[in-house]
């Protein structure tokens, strides 16, 4: 660990064996891999969460997540109507209601295994945390890693106690070390658990005291935070700060409290004045074992005229040595009575307190016959280490020529950004088509029959799941895609195979087997959400068309150009873009040679999360409990404001959480077409053919008003927006198209 080059953090959903495989595969690249080791876990796959964004405009992709996963939700289930909307809903009785709240990650006990893997560094949560939290957690892991390196690491119960007291929502070893479901999720409470110290045995009404039988030796002090929590009566939980010294009694510890407490209530220490004091000490003046100074070799010389000079070689770990040549800064005079000995001079010159250095080796050329004030010698030493620090920083910077070249590239880049403008008003209208995303053959057929220019088909059978033989999965997937190809071919509609948002090893192996056969059958393009899968697609079928979906988060013109160089021919822009931002992006690349076609998501339930956690596992219909996860059963979660968020469970038992209201940009169609957008995307995954047929029809008629008279029943006075609202799930919203994201 600790290699000195840029790093890339693996998602917290990545198990350690897979992390090792990734690290080994990129060992020869100048990028180190980092893994998340301690702190709050995201419920969603990293970088694939839009829930905070759609609820309040605070985007997790910009570091502004409002943590809606820590809120109270109710699980609901029901049937679906002809358009795939929920009907006959009822609340599912579950004991815990913080359905999306994971426990916090702690890998302290596993550091031996982790440090033995080929990852370069560990990531510890520090954003929005107190200095005391950071000091406690970082120092604990630093000492543990040093012990691992020395071969002496044994988990220290007192160190674990400090981690619990710093902050925890109960700890998990995470996906990294194989925890799942109840071992990973903390659905009962989303707040700090602290450290359980015992149980209440008695409450004295008259004295207003409780007696606690401790589970472990514990010292409590005034100012400590205490929480009383009874799992059978969670609403009665409450906390306080101790105002008086606890009293040791025969059968435990006696505390004065302000409210009654039921016998059997668990008692948690949620903050400790002792730990806070130690943390402040660490932050202000760390102990020597927490310092990792940079080694430096010194060469000290006093010449024949008495000129004292210091030179040295800095040896930063993992980097090339840095030479430092000091200038003579002091002349030592011949001693009259008591010369400065070699040992005294060496002692003064090798002191490094207050600097980032430690003297690892030294040579001294001095005959021991001269004298100089200690203050002067100290100043020479200080000047040298100041120069050494500057030289070390300079060695980390690019060469002047490289810096000037980078400045020129930056000027060129910013000039290109300024060139981006929206298409001028009244510009010539270009061809703009309707694209449908579907996951059922019924929906594919309906969309093609309604005139979609292209259907992106994501057959659920492709995902790997325990209990389904790989060959069976391949056969079913191939049959589904061949049937979809035939249905689209009849209607002169292009079919694109959409890969799952998350593709792992089993899917990648299946892809290499299946794709060449499907290309022979007429498939000419695939859609993916990540560049790694795109590379695998190109390797499996050279020349295959590459289409980019939501997961690429295409937010600006430079991203379009990057993916163009990777041979993407079609890109779906980020749903977090506003209308004006879409117009500027499209204008910036309109004259680029070979630019991909640009598409905008205009209709459907926006996918806000994809997670390894299976919410269906809370239901009796879970396939792991003998159920079927039947498609005609609708499940969702209701937030505290009454909004229903649909939940779709895929073939790998991942949960996909959708926005409560459907995105609908029907009124923006003319502006999108004028801006140069090539296609409008309707997401009909999880929706039957009736929904796809009507939505494709409405958008086609809006794009080509002259065709509306040919529609059956064309005399209706309903507007396109009215027709959409009638079949939409949860109402309609323009999302970020009008309001954009919040900047702060």
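-> sequence recovered:
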């Amino acid at each position: 660990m600790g290699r000195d080059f840029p790093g890339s953090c693996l998602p917290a959903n990545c198990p350690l064996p897979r992390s090792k495989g990734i690290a080994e595969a990129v060992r020869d690249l100048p990028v180190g891999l980092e893994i998340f080791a301690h702190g709050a876990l995201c419920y969603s796959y990293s970088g694939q969460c839009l829930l905070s964004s759609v609820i309040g405009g605070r985007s997790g992709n910009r570091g502004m997540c409002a943590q809606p996963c820590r809120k109270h939700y109710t699980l609901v289930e029901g049937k679906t109507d002809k358009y795939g909307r929920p009907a006959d809903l009822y609340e599912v009785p579950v004991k815990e209601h913080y359905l999306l709240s994971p426990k916090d990650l702690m890998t302290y006990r596993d550091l031996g295994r982790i440090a033995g893997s080929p990852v370069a560094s560990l990531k510890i949560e520090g954003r929005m945390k107190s200095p005391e939290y950071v000091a406690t957690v970082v120092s604990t892991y630093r000492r543990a890693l040093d012990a691992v390196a020395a071969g002496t690491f044994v988990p220290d119960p007192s160190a674990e106690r400090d981690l619990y007291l710093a902050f925890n929502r109960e700890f998990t070893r995470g996906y990294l070390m194989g925890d799942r479901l109840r071992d990973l999720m903390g659905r009962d409470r989303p707040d700090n658990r602290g450290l359980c110290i015992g149980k209440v045995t008695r409450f004295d009404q008259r004295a207003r005291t409780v007696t606690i039988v401790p589970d472990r030796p514990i010292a409590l002090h005034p100012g400590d935070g205490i929480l009383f929590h009874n799992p059978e009566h969670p609403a009665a939980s409450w906390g306080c700060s101790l105002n008086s010294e606890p009293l040791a009694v025969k059968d435990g510890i006696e505390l004065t409290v302000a409210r009654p407490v039921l016998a059997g209530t668990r008692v948690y220490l949620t903050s400790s004045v002792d730990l806070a004091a130690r943390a402040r000490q660490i932050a202000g003046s760390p102990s020597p074992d927490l310092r990792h100074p940079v080694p430096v070799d010194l060469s000290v010389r006093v010449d024949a005229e008495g000129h004292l000079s210091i030179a040295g070689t800095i040896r930063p770990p993992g980097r090339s040595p840095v030479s430092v040549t000091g200038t003579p800064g002091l002349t030592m005079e011949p001693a009259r009575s008591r010369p400065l000995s070699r040992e005294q001079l060496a002692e003064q010159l090798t002191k490094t307190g207050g600097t980032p250095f430690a003297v690892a080796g030294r040579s001294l050329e001095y005959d021991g016959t001269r004298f100089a004030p200690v203050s002067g010698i100290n100043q020479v030493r200080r000047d040298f280490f100041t120069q050494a620090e500057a030289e070390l920083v300079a060695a980390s910077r690019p060469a002047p020529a490289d810096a000037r070249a980078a400045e020129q590239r930056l000027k060129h880049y910013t000039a290109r950004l300024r060139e981006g403008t929206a298409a001028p008003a009244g510009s010539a209208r270009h061809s703009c088509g309707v694209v449908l995303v579907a996951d059922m053959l019924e929906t594919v057929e309906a969309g093609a029959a309604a005139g979609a220019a292209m259907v992106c088909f994501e057959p659920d059978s492709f995902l790997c799941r325990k209990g389904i033989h790989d060959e069976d999965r391949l056969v079913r997937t191939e049959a589904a895609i061949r049937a979809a190809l035939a249905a689209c071919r009849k209607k002169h509609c292009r079919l694109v195979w959409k890969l799952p948002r998350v593709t792992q090893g089993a899917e990648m192996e299946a892809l290499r087997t299946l794709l060449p056969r499907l290309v022979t059958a007429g498939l000419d393009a695939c859609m993916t959400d990540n560049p790694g899968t795109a590379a695998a697609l190109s390797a499996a079928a050279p020349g295959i068309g590459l289409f980019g979906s939501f997961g690429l988060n295409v937010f600006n013109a430079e991203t379009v150009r990057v993916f163009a160089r990777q041979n993407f021919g079609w890109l779906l822009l980020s749903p977090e873009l506003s209308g004006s931002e879409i117009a500027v992006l499209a204008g910036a690349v309109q004259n680029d040679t070979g630019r991909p076609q640009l598409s905008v998501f205009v209709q459907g339930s926006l996918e806000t999360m994809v997670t390894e956690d299976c919410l269906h596992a809370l239901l009796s219909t879970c396939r792991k409990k003998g159920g079927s996860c039947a498609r005609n059963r609708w499940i969702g979660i209701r937030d505290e404001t009454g909004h229903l968020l649909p939940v779709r469970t895929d073939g790998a038992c991942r949960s996909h959480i959708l926005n409560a209201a459907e995105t609908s940009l029907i009124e923006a169609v003319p502006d999108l077409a004028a801006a140069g957008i090539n296609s409008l995307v309707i997401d009909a995954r999880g929706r039957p053919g009736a929904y796809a047929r009507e939505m494709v029809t409405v958008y086609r008629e809006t794009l080509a008003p002259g065709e509306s008279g040919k529609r059956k029943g064309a005399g209706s006075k309903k507007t396109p927006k009215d027709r959409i609202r009638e079949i939409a799930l949860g109402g309609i919203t323009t999302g970020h198209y009008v309001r954009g994201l919040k900047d702060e």
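The chain is about 30% helix and 25% strand.
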